[in-house]
Amino acid sequence: MRFFRPVPRISLSEPADAPELAQLLGVEVPEVEAWMRGGFEVYKATLDGKLVGSIRCAFPTGACVIDRLVVDPGHRRRGFGEYLAEHAVSRARRAGASKVWAQVPEGRAEATRILSQLGFEPTGAAGETLRLLELRL
Fold first, then answer.
1. Residue among 80, 92, 78 nearest 120 (CA)
2. For position 125, what pLDDT does the model report?
3. Contact criterion met (CB below 8 Å) for 97 and 63
4. Checking CA distances to 75, which of 2, 9, 14, 46 falls within 20 to 30 Å?
5. What's the farthest any 2 CA atoms get from each other in the chain?
6. Angle at 97 between CA 122 and CA 64, to 5 degrees
7. Is 84 strand, coil or helix?
8. Structure pTM?
């Protein structure tokens, strides 16, 4: 019987992580490499040395934008998405951002739920496929 929830280790991804991140995110490796070269901060969550989730942050003009929140299907419903989202909000605070915007693809109810629990509120949509949420810090 386990009494404690497992806690993933969250750290900034490095270029060597791109292949594993690309597989988890369902994108091509060059795209992840371009994010890292282009100023995005990509954080990974690992548990027992295995990649279990990821989130991407950007810091345009006094704000933080988070997106690409993903947790490995075999590790969902264990709080890892919440840890990643909380880490991103904490990073935004440390950067001095006044607000955090989250972009969530339509149909990702679990990601929306996690962000809503952290205080994010819907602010609009970008087309038919992307919901925008905002958290004022």
1. 92
2. 82
3. yes
4. 14
5. 48
6. 55
7. helix
8. 0.92
d(CA 110, CA 24): 17
For 98-122, the pLDDT digits (tens) are 999 999 999 899 999 999 999 999 9
* pLDDT tens-place string over residues 40-50: 999 999 999 99
Average of per-residue pLDDT values in the chain: 93
| 77 phi, psi to nearest 5 deg | 65, 30
pLDDT beneath 50: ranges in the chain: 1
Rounded to whole angstroms, the Cα distance separating 84 from 110 reads: 13
- ∠ CA(32), CA(123), CA(112), 5° rounding? 55
Cβ density class 58-78: b for 16+ within 10 Å, e for less: ebeeebbbbbbbbbbeebeeb
CA dihedral 119, 82, 11, 32 (to 10 degrees): -90
Q: Angle at which helices 80-94 and 109-117 pack, to 10 degrees? A: 50
Between the alpha carbon of residue 50 and those of residues 2, 10, 26, 107, 108, the distances in Å are 20, 12, 17, 27, 24
